[in-house]
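Annex B, item 7. Sequence and structure tokens for protein A, then protein B.
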Amino acid sequence: MENEDSNKAPVNSENADINQHFKEVKSTENYLSLAGSETNLLSLGKWTKFFAVLNYIAIAFIILWVVYVIIVTLVIGGLAYAVSFAQQVRTLNVFLVCVIPFVILFISTNYLNRAGNGLKRAVQTGDNRSLADGIQGLKSYYALYGILTIIGFCICALFMILAILL
């Protein structure tokens, strides 16, 4: 009878190192190996950071728009009495409706930024705490948007029920 090891395909040195690493890790409690995942984590960190920067740019545009609306409303409202009080209230309502999504965007962007920084730092330094911070940022980001999705579905269902009843 042949030896079972002779039937196995040859293993390259990288796989042998990873297998040896996993054997060592099994003896260590609470240790997570990221062997082979560094490039994916680094890429994830870069993309997360990229979207955070895009969101910060969007926030800057929103702030500029709000300042513009406030200035126009004050100038038109203060200089010309042709604009009715109802028009000014409508502008204020639009402003308030935009504040809630702005706050949500700002909070979620901070989560993305934290995640991107943590993931990139974890890959570069090998720091487990940075990895935990990055994953926590992603978890918070997805939890926020999961809650918002559920709220959105509930509002849609409410409107559908109201449409059927009315």
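Protein B:
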Amino acid sequence: MSETIFSKIIRGEIPCHRVYEDELVLAFLDINPLSEGHTLVIPKRAAVTLDALDDESSAAIGRVLPRICRAVLAATGTEAYNILQNNGPGAHQAVFHVHFHIIPKPSAERGLGIRWPGGAIDHAKAATLAAAIAEQLDD
């Protein structure tokens, strides 16, 4: 995996506004926030996409993400927020190190804007796809 800005932040070569740190996870304020309190949560072990992240790092993020969300909401006085996590350039990933955005949504104008162009499900194809996905989980 190539070097990223997050690698340098983890090593302390680039400063950040830390909000949480343990042996596996680092959380800090985004330097280009969509709203006040926009926080990034990253594993210290590098992986480009979530599917490539090891189980221990995944579990560590899962344990602390809700706590960090509660802290961001309390500190900002915001009640609504988004969690954003992109995987791959086609999904708008810009830094190729797994990271979760906690983005407070204080108003319609601030925070993450989302357009959701939903479609209709084909139930026959969905049943086949669900079975194929479940089969992959058995391996």
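Comment on protein B: The chain has three helices and five strands.
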